[in-house]
TrEMBL record:
PROSITE patterns: VOC. Residues 35-152 form the VOC domain. InterPro entries: Glyas_Bleomycin-R_OHBP_Dase, VOC_core. It comes from Mucilaginibacter rubeus. This is VOC family protein.
Length: 166
């Protein structure tokens, strides 16, 4: 009986410690990436590729690509969006990256995140662009891939009336 009691106490202590760690761990707080905001890639025929994906995979494409709508965490009232968009093969939008794709990361605390990155010697390739649907800035990763950081305003994004793929 004492062994089961000790085992039970050990399990309770472990779960309490684990829960406390999850709540207080700095990785879970402050400026950080919270998800993928979009996948952007180059294509020889973006409109043709969009049509193919629409016809064959049911992706509903609008003016800015396909918008995948989802709900944030346990709060079903907070919408989030992930964009999928082919760009013309000749686009300059990915420069200075020579790669064929760019990933857009959803972030929290963009200003603080940029300050942390600057302190680490990582500088953006442009200045923060503020829009009604969020703030954007670009960086280069160590492999030479251009990435986009987006602190979204999902309410503003939803007001744009984009078709979503659900």
């Amino acid at each position: 009986m004492k062994k089961f009691l000790l085992l039970g106490l050990f399990c309770v202590a472990f779960l309490l410690g684990y829960s406390f760690n999850r709540l207080t761990n700095p990785v879970n707080k402050g400026p950080r990436v919270t998800g993928l905001g979009g996948i952007f890639f180059k294509a020889k025929d973006p409109k043709g590729l969009e049509a193919w994906y629409s016809k064959n995979l049911g992706i509903r494409v609008g003016d800015y690509g396909a918008n995948f709508e989802w709900h944030q965490g346990m709060d079903s009232t907070k919408k989030g969006f992930t964009v999928w968009a082919p760009f013309k093969e000749t686009t300059k939008y990915f420069q200075p990256s020579e790669k064929q794709f760019m990933i857009n990361y959803r972030v929290e605390g963009l200003t603080q995140l940029l300050a942390q990155m600057k302190a680490a010697g990582i500088l953006p390739t442009d200045s923060v662009e503020k829009t009604s649907y969020g703030d954007f800035v670009h960086l280069m990763d160590p492999e030479g891939n251009k990435i986009e950081l987006w602190e979204p305003n999902d309410v503003g994004y939803a007001k744009m009336g984009s078709n979503t793929t659900k």
